[in-house]
Amino acid sequence: MSILIRAAETVDVAGIFRVRLSVKENALSAAELESMGITEDSITAMIKNGPCAWVAVEDSEVIGFSMINSEEGSLFAAFVLPSHEGQGVGRRIVEAAERELFTRHTVCWLETGRTTRAAQFYRRLGWSNEQDIGDGDIRMEKHRA
Questions:
Q1: Among 3.40.50.1980, 3.30.70.1350, 3.40.50.2300, 3.40.630.30, what is the CATH number of 4-143?
Q2: Would 101 disulfide with which of 25, 29, 52, 108, CB 3.0-4.6 Å?
């Protein structure tokens, strides 16, 4: 079956958390996410308030998602189930997020670990202008074409 990329709906929140808790890199527990204010309720409220998240769905199952802060112009989450890595899902959900960001901003940004697979992935997608923000993390930017 094909993979559908679409705007996230509140019914997707449990699937979003299932994906987020499954990842190997930048892994966080539910308790760690909650301590950062990331809960099912907070994500549900964000989705209700406007275009901020996209999901990749296969056989009615969320297999990946991306999230933005459109006011700040940032991409702050992009995760794919480990079983679906390397299939283009990450690229597609990030591109959906970028399209929305570029409707409001000429430059968008993200933060990630300098030596992570995620950083390599973003570099391949054209994110650049890396700035060291400490603790091994970098800020990257992408300009609207």
A1: 3.40.630.30
A2: 108
